[in-house]
Specification:
The longest helix is centred in the first third of the chain and has 30 residues. By secondary structure, the chain is mainly alpha-helical.
Length: about 375
């Protein structure tokens, strides 16, 4: 079962590694301007706020989580094929809206399925999820050299093949039901009013909001300080390599240190990371060290967040719990962070943008310290 679960993550994040770094370049090659590219890319993030919750509700009520994943993967692949019909702006708006609605539905439900398969060994999640990071690196590194020689014209074909790979991988993972304890009779709104749940979701929102300047403007920030494209790419890759190192260790760290302590460390190191990027961008060795902190700001944080989501949302609430985590953090948090970062860079400068990110991460740590139970 390990390789079946890992295979899905590998193809999913390989597709992400092809889509996120290169989709904007592909759209630019079609003649789209900066504003149009921003709007088309924003659709992916916007649907992440809504789609996971709709599909999570369906999965929780049907109990057939993997069927939802397979349907979503197939429809995402078929929807994306619409890019071969034409290159008009409104056609791409329609295609990306449909595609991302299904694409953003699959991962939260698969996360819940993975944890159900692991049973009482949820600390082993990170050793499976690391194959997603490996897939991301393989796609980024491999396609970068190819596109440098051929251009990005073949990107849609590459993505379609990877999306088909995700669907095939989903067919290999069996359904795994889990008995619903009596607490599952509680309505979801009652779960959401629990102080620990409110604190946890707020921490997730703030941590991902603090990443807005990084995911949206890090490359531009380094380029403005005379870093070459090669150096920028190597720094991005270093962050993901550090993330893999953490995933290899988390199965031992979670039982040993506990989720709350690891989350506090993650928010503290995330704060340090943004401070270093704000103040020492011209010092390459400090930027290298700051990138290794991606191990904490994403690797530790994400593994702990998945673990806590599985604990706080049980039984029939698991699908919607994973959906809420995805939509409130990577969706709403990422969107808010990216939007505010743009205004801060234009109004106050890039360094203040990262200073605000550091303050946001520090606030997340304070809320985690006060709101997450000590035995978590």
């Amino acid at each position: 079962m390990y390789w079946r679960l890992s295979g899905f993550y590998f193809f999913y994040f390989a597709a992400l590694g092809a889509l996120i770094p290169y989709w904007g370049l592909y759209l630019k090659s079609l003649g789209f301007g900066v504003v149009e590219i921003g709007e088309l890319v924003a659709i992916i993030m916007a649907t992440k706020i809504i789609a996971p919750n709709i599909w999570g509700w369906i999965a929780d009520h049907t109990g057939r989580r993997m069927r939802i994943v397979r349907i979503a993967c197939l429809l995402a692949t078929l929807s994306f094929a619409g890019v071969f019909i034409g290159h008009g702006y409104w056609l791409l708006v329609l295609v990306m809206s449909l595609f991302s609605f299904f694409w953003n539905a699959a991962l939260p439900q698969f996360e819940a399925t993975t944890l159900n398969h692991l049973g009482t060994e949820t600390h082993r999640y990170s050793s499976i999820r690391l194959w997603g990071s490996i897939g991301f690196i393989v796609a980024v590194a491999g396609l970068g050299g190819i596109f440098e020689r051929t251009g990005t014209g073949m990107l849609p074909t590459v993505l379609l093949v990877l999306f088909a790979g995700i669907w095939i991988a989903s067919l290999l993972v069996p359904e795994r039901s889990t008995p619903h304890p009596q607490v599952d009779n509680e309505p979801l709104r009652k779960v959401l009013t629990q102080p620990a749940v409110v604190s946890f979701l707020l921490v997730c929102f703030l941590v991902q909001a603090s990443h807005g300047p990084y995911y949206t403007f890090y490359s531009l920030y380094l380029a403005a300080h005379d870093y070459s494209e090669s150096a920028i790419g190597q720094l991005w890759a270093l962050g993901v390599v550090a993330e893999i190192g953490v995933f290899l260790k988390m199965h031992g760290w979670l039982p040993r240190f506990g989720a709350r302590r690891l989350l506090l460390v993650a928010t503290l190191l995330t704060t340090l990371r943004w401070i270093l990027i704000a103040l020492f961008v011209d010092q390459l060795w400090i930027m290298i060290f700051a990138q290794t902190l991606h191990a904490a700001s994403f690797g530790v944080y994400h593994a702990v967040a998945i673990h806590l989501t599985h604990q706080l949302f049980t039984g029939r609430h698991q699908g919607r719990g994973q959906a809420l985590y995805s939509s409130l953090s990577f969706g709403a948090g990422g969107a808010a962070g990216s939007l505010i970062a743009g205004y801060l860079w234009e109004g106050a400068g890039a360094q203040w943008m990262y200073a605000a990110a550091a303050a946001t991460a520090a606030l997340a740590g304070l809320i985690a310290w006060r709101g997450i139970e000590r035995h978590a």
